[in-house]
Amino acid sequence: MIKLIFCSLVLLLGASVAFAMPVNGLYDARVKVADQSKEAYNQAVITGAQQVLVKLTGDRDVTLDANVSQQLSAAPQWVTSFSYEQAPSGAAEVTTNTWVLNFHFNEQMINHLLSQTQHALWERDRPQLLLWLAQQTGDGQQLIGNGSESTMVQLIGQIGNNRGLSLMLPMLDIDDLHQVSVEDVWAPLPALATLMKASKRYSTDSLLIGRLYPGNGSNDPWQGDWLLVMNGEQESWHNTAATQDDLVATGVNHFIDNIAQQHRINASANQERPLQVQVFGVANVSDLSKVKEYLQGLSLVDNLKVATLGENYVTFSLQVKGDMTQLVSTLAEDHLLTPQTGDASLSGQLTYKLAA
Questions:
Q1: Is the per-residue pLDDT at 356 higher than 80?
Q2: Domain residues of the chain, as ranges?
Q3: pLDDT-based confidence at 342, cuts 50/70/90?
Q4: pTM for this structure?
Q5: CA 244 to CA 56: how far, in whole Å?
Q6: Half-sphere exposure of 95 (CA within 13 A, CB side)
Q7: How many CA atoms are closer than 13 Å to the CA of 76, on its beta-carbon side?
Q8: From 3.30.60, 3.30.70, 1.25.40, 3.40.50, which CATH number describes the 10-22+124-264 domain?
Q9: 48-58 per-position pLDDT tens digit
Q10: 172 contacts: CB under 8 Å, gap ≥ 6
Q11: Is residue 203 within 8 Å of residue 18, measured between CB atoms?
């Protein structure tokens, strides 16, 4: 049983901006199978398609929709390539699942299914989340890093792969431990300035800070106190679970549910809206390429073309897929372009300046 307590979002440390990066492999899936039989393949391809649908939408319940589940029987037709590899010798369930099936699914077919069933896509540009975790042990509090001998390390990596999000644990090497102590994470009010400074080496300022501790009695559940720091805001919550791994899985997945819901592209709004984006501060070919590649990489942008190339500026014409305000929000979060004008819904044009 989980109990979640939410606090209002509050401004933190000024105008901090999260680093968002395009996620690769959203249309790929890996499924363990016992053999290379047709029966095993047919079961695995449906499991693989389910994995991809969850990654693309950020919705763990997307395949429970009858309109989606009824079409999963067509999953073999969505496969563009597949391959087998032997499961690692140390992998769990290796005695029964000796192979891994790698699938790549057709992007247009999967997107059509989601559009047809009115499920929104999570943007391809997603934050990289660094987890600062501390657990209560018999010897006191202990930080959990990427090299820790804990099942949580593998669990967190698996959650990231399943959800299409980069989840990182600190290395806890000399550089980290010179800046961060377990008290910085364990304190009821974590040392945010210290943790933010130490996190810069990981090229992210999106942090999830967690305190994990057993209940007072032997039969009491594990307790988790969490603090999310992202885009200059913070959100805290508390959860309980029967085991420590369940505690971590529930807490981390809850955060991913929230962030995906905030950054989905409205698939029900299929119409594309024309827009011109004018960017000043484009002084050379390198600047032009940087801006063009950035805009082309945004999930909300389609049919990007250079409309006008002038002295120190460029104007792009493009189509916006979904909500215009989502595009404006994404541009603001990524911080490559500084806005110079306001409402694009009135003028049909946005004006920016390339950040120095």
A1: no
A2: 10-22+124-264, 28-121, 272-354
A3: low
A4: 0.72
A5: 28
A6: 0
A7: 7
A8: 3.40.50
A9: 999 999 999 99
A10: 143, 145, 146, 147, 148
A11: no
